[in-house]
Amino acid sequence: MDDPTTTPPREHSERPSDALDADDFRQLFRAGPTGCLLVDEEGVVRDLNRQAELLFDYGAEELIGQRIETLVPDRLRKRHARHRAAFARAPSLRPMGIGLELFARRRDGTELPVEIALSPVDTSRGPLVLVSINDITQRKRLRAFGAGVLQGAEEERQRIARDLHDDTAQALSALVLRLQMARRTEDGTRRDELLHEMHSEIRRTSEGVRRILRGLRPPALAEAGLTAAIRAQTRETLGEEGISARVDAGPVDELLDHEGNLALYRIVQEALSNVVRHADATKVVVSLQVEDGILRASVEDDGCGFAVEAEPASNGGRGLGIIGMQERATILGGSVRLESEAGRGTTVTVELPVPGAVP
């Protein structure tokens, strides 16, 4: 006997009365959080959602009826056509271009790195492919930044090891030799000379150790404030290179917390290092000012400059340094702007919101 408390299962062909209808699915498709296109077997775009319009800067009426290769960079269109033909022969739900770096093309011809997933769909208009597209520009930037951080950390460890070996370790070895000589000598005058030399060498070694420690954690930042720390860093970084420098600072020391001060200090430090490594400059102006709730710091040099749009973002040099500056600022809700032109110098400007300030 049937259990009256048990509801018999619905047949698969039965459609629940509260199921979504075609208009509902249409609205869901249009409002999807990622870029989506519907493409037919011939590679012609039959529909797209709002996110796809924003992603490629095309209106729906401009893309519908066009071949999908419109959104593929010229250099990749032949390869894409081959992949599309292969998928048409054996359609299945899967990522596109496994193991490959994929790029799409915007309306203005610029490229963006993407992830693409393909899903075949049988419709009343025949078989279509749902193409889901994610812009992974930010992810690639973060990956490059992470690689740069690891590389930078390794280079910093090597630099510290080199400094300790070339300066501190050798100085300590020389002190041991002088101490042995002082213990063996019976000439009081010579012993005093050796002790004086040892005293001078100990002072130089101590200053070298303090220099290494300042590079790891700037004590002036906590002891004297942001402005003093940046003045000291500017003097130390540029003075040794014979580059003229000026620091123009307003009342900014109490505006950020310690993490904010440290982030701004590191950004300015990286900008100054880039001046030394790349700019061939003779003069640098560092500015620290606050206006309308924004702390604005800039490092301006009169060096050789460069074409900003041509600067690679993952070249292990200035590109990764710029990404690092941008990421530090982004964490604090700020931004970094880079202005440069070949032969006309470079200006790096960072803007950070002041906590609690009313713009």
What would you say this structure looks like, in words?
By secondary structure, this protein is of the alpha+beta class. It has 3 domains: 22-135, PAS domain (Beta-Lactamase, 2-Layer Sandwich); 137-216; 224-359, Histidine kinase-like ATPase, C-terminal domain (Heat Shock Protein 90, 2-Layer Sandwich). Helix content is 46%, strand content 21%. Strands 1, 2, 3, 4, 5 and 6 form a 6-stranded antiparallel β-sheet that branches. A 5-stranded mixed β-sheet has the order 7-8-9-11-10, with helices on one face. It is elongated.
Report a brief summary of the structure.
The protein has 359 residues and is an alpha+beta fold.
Order of helices and strands: HEEHHHEEEEHHHHEHEEHEE
- What value does the Rg take, in angstroms? 31 Å
Q: What is the tally of helical segments?
A: 10
Low-pLDDT stretches: 1-10, 312-317
The CATH topology of the largest domain is Heat Shock Protein 90
Strand content: 15-25%
Can you identify the CATH superfamily of the largest domain? Histidine kinase-like ATPase, C-terminal domain
Q: Terminal Cα separation, in Å?
A: 75 Å
The averaged pLDDT comes out at 82
Amount of helix: 40-55%
Largest sheet: 6 strands, antiparallel
Shape: elongated
Please report the total strand number as a whole number.
Answer: 11
Class from secondary-structure proportions: alpha+beta
What number of structural domains do the residues give? 3
CATH top level of the largest domain is Alpha Beta
Using the 3D structure, state the CATH architecture of the largest domain.
Answer: 2-Layer Sandwich
